[in-house]
Write a structure and sequence with these properties.
two-stranded antiparallel ribbon; 56 residues; mainly beta
Length: 56
């Protein structure tokens, strides 16, 4: 269980958002990699995959 506190916007119409918004019906089909330092978000679906390795 995860609890997130903070202000969140709620939209009753998708056109109201300034940015494109994906719903969970779409995002639940992907692995999501969020790379804040490089300002990147990657959505991976099979046959693609990722590995986490320790830096040497």
């Amino acid at each position: 269980m995860v609890t997130i506190n903070g202000p969140f916007a709620v939209f009753t119409e998708g056109e109201s958002a300034e940015l494109s918004v994906l719903g969970r019906d779409v995002t639940n089909n992907f692995s999501v990699i969020y790379d804040y330092p490089n300002r990147a978000v990657a959505l991976l679906a099979r046959p693609h995959y990722y590995e986490i390795k320790r830096a040497s």
